[in-house]
Write a structure and sequence with these properties.
- By secondary structure, the protein is mainly alpha-helical.
- It folds into 2 domains: 428 residues, Amino acid/polyamine transporter I (Up-down Bundle); 47 residues, no CATH class.
- Helix content is 74%, strand content 1%.
- A two-stranded antiparallel sheet has the order 1-2.
- Helix 5 packs antiparallel against helix 15, helix 7 runs antiparallel to helix 17 and helix 24 runs antiparallel to helix 25.
- The longest helix is centred in the N-terminal third of the chain and has 36 residues.
- It is globular.
- It comes from Pontibacter cellulosilyticus.
Length: 582
């Protein structure tokens, strides 16, 4: 039993990870092309961060939180900032593809590395599905605007059409006129009604989402230089459009719309956590490019911080402009940027925004489709996945098999799933990765000799959290009692039985971790930044609800089955250690 547990925590040091990478490159010819500079990495980060979040989900977040959602962007950026510093240290120390998976292998060991790798596969796949669906919505709207309408059953997912049809039937049965139904419900009803059937199965599928996924997958397949040029061009284009939106929109801002600033209180602001955080997950993708950077130890840390700062400023300003142009309640739409300009009779600007959204979300899909195959590739190199995933195309120098699999994994679900089903699950997976990366830095600090010996680049600034963290926790508690007393009373109430209690479990777990980490910080003088990163991201996870936690844990459970059925015995580290023991 002790050997079994020891095997689960077998670790690859930073030195070993770099040595294995170099050996694979020299012996098997798996080297990728080093073509990315700092400006390219910053562009990749902006491409991934500014997309569906800024053109779509920001609307629902603003409708729930009002102008105060701008504070949520700042809070989320701070949480991501703590994580970005931790990512930056790992990326500088271990400039190998694999992102948080590789970092976990160096700090926590193989089992946790597998869990986070499996989590990242879900995060990227579902994130890409969400972006493809959102892209399809904007593309369909633009086509309708120029008179080229496709049948509804070819532009809508199966779930949305089915739900809209049955919801409409209920309302129509009660005597409500069809013309008074919500627009999206009317579209879903018509899609379901007019769709051809095959053996009783309605053929409703989102073909624009499929098409853009196939196109982007092909672009990623043929090489990093082509992907880099495309990403840089798309980023420049959408930044110009966003600056246009901010500049023109500022003239239509009414400060009366900013009062009250937080109409639904802290609960309303935090309701947008999933939508807002979904906008920030892109900087994680920068770390997957490590093996294609000219100078990863210098450029990766800078690119992460630069991209995060630039995008946060744009998000905050844009949120204030949107909520200033129209009352916040009107922003619960799928295309908020285009909507606000239509609302003030600037249809030409609305059209430009709609077209630019297509460009913006295509760039997000490009970066995410680029990042995921490299995680498959790295896990395959370690023997945790079949070797086919680490095969490099002899001409294009890309992990071609992993790229094709990624395209299929994204394209097929995008045909049938809707945006609501996927964004929350993406956010919880990303937050989990951030928590483990921050925790990994804390573990490496416990191994100072190795960290010092192998580290040559960026390091998270050390601030002793011994006294600072307890003070911050105390201040947070005081503020909660001061501004959120009613919700705290509800939380500590024992009424409602299990149905009510189960939704409190994530927050109870967070409170327990906070207490434990505060004690450890006091006793061991832990570094404040990774501790705060761990706690803030863990708190954001508690805001995503028990349903998403259940789905997330079910996914991780499936991953453990695969690991013990294949990865545990085929691990190269396992075989190497077994050979040494023999």
């Amino acid at each position: 039993m002790s050997n079994f547990l020891k095997n689960l925590t077998r670790r690859k040091s930073a030195t070993a990870l770099l040595a294995d990478y170099k050996q694979d490159g020299n012996i098997h010819g798996t080297d990728l092309v080093r073509a990315l500079r700092l400006k390219d990495l910053v562009s990749f980060g902006i491409a991934a961060i500014i997309g569906a979040g800024i053109f779509s989900t920001i609307g629902n977040a603003s409708a729930a939180g009002g102008p105060g959602v701008s504070l949520l962007f700042i809070f989320t950026a701070i949480a991501c900032g703590f994580s970005a510093l931790c990512y930056a240290q790992f990326a500088s120390t271990i400039p190998v593809s694999g992102s948080a998976y590789t970092y976990a292998y160096a700090s926590f060991g193989e089992l946790i590395a597998w869990i986070i790798g499996w989590d990242l596969l879900m995060e990227y796949a579902i994130g890409n599905i969400a972006v493809a669906i959102s892209w399809s919505d904007y593309f369909t709207a633009v086509m309708q605007g120029v008179g080229l309408s496709l049948p509804e059953y070819l532009t809508m997912d199966y779930l949305s059409a089915s739900r809209s049809y049955h919801a409409a039937l209920e309302l129509l049965a009660k005597g409500q006129a069809f013309s008074t139904l919500p627009g999206n419900m009317q579209e879903g009803y018509q899609a379901w009604l007019n769709a051809p059937s095959l053996g009783g199965f309605k053929l409703v599928a989102d073909f624009p989402a499929l098409s853009i996924t196939v196109l982007i997958t092909y672009l990623v397949y043929i090489g990093i230089k082509e992907s880099k040029r495309t990403a840089n061009f798309l980023v420049l284009l959408k930044l110009l459009v966003i600056l246009l939106v901010i500049t023109v929109g500022a003239f239509y801002v009414s400060t009366d719309n900013w009062t009250p600033f937080a109409p639904n209180g802290l609960a309303g602001i935090m309701k947008g956590v999933s939508a807002v955080f979904f906008a920030y997950i892109g900087f994680d993708a920068i770390s997957t490019t490590a093996e294609e950077c000219e100078n990863p130890q210098r450029d990766l840390p800078r690119a992460m911080i630069f991209a995060l700062v630039i995008c946060t400023v744009l998000y905050v300003v844009l949120a204030l402009v949107l909520t200033g142009m129209v009352p916040f309640k009107e922003l619960a739409v799928g295309d908020p940027l285009a909507y606000v300009f239509s609302r003030v009779n600037l249809d030409a600007i609305a059209g430009i925004v709609a077209v630019s959204a297509i460009v913006a979300m295509a760039s997000v899909l490009l970066v995410f489709q680029y990042g995921q195959p490299r995680i498959w590739m790295t896990m395959s190199r370690d023997g945790l996945l079949p070797s086919a995933f680490s095969r490099i195309h002899p001409k294009h120098k890309t992990p071609y098999f992993a790229t094709i699999v990624t395209g299929v994994v994204v394209a097929v679900p995008a045909l049938f799933m809707n945006l609501t089903e996927v964004t929350d699950l993406t956010s919880i997976g990303t937050l989990f990765a951030f928590v483990l990366v921050c925790g990994g830095i804390l573990l490496l600090e416990e191994k100072q000799k190795e960290a010092t010996a192998t580290h040559k680049g960026f390091r998270v600034p050390y601030i002793n959290g011994k006294y600072v963290l307890p003070v911050l926790i105390l201040v947070a508690i005081v503020l909660l009692f001061r501004y959120n007393a009613a919700e705290l009373a509800t939380f500590f109430s024992m009424s409602g039985g299990w149905k009510s209690f189960q939704h409190k479990i994530p927050l109870i777990g967070f409170i327990g971790v906070s207490i434990m980490l505060t004690v450890l910080t006091y006793k061991r003088n832990l570094s404040l930044i990774p501790v705060l990163g761990l706690l803030t991201n863990l708190y954001l996870m508690t805001e995503l609800g028990i349903t998403n936690w259940s789905r997330f844990l079910a996914w991780l459970g499936l991953g453990l089955v695969i690991y013990f059925a294949y990865g545990y015995r085929n691990s190269k580290l396992h075989n190497k250690l077994a050979a040494l023991e023999a």
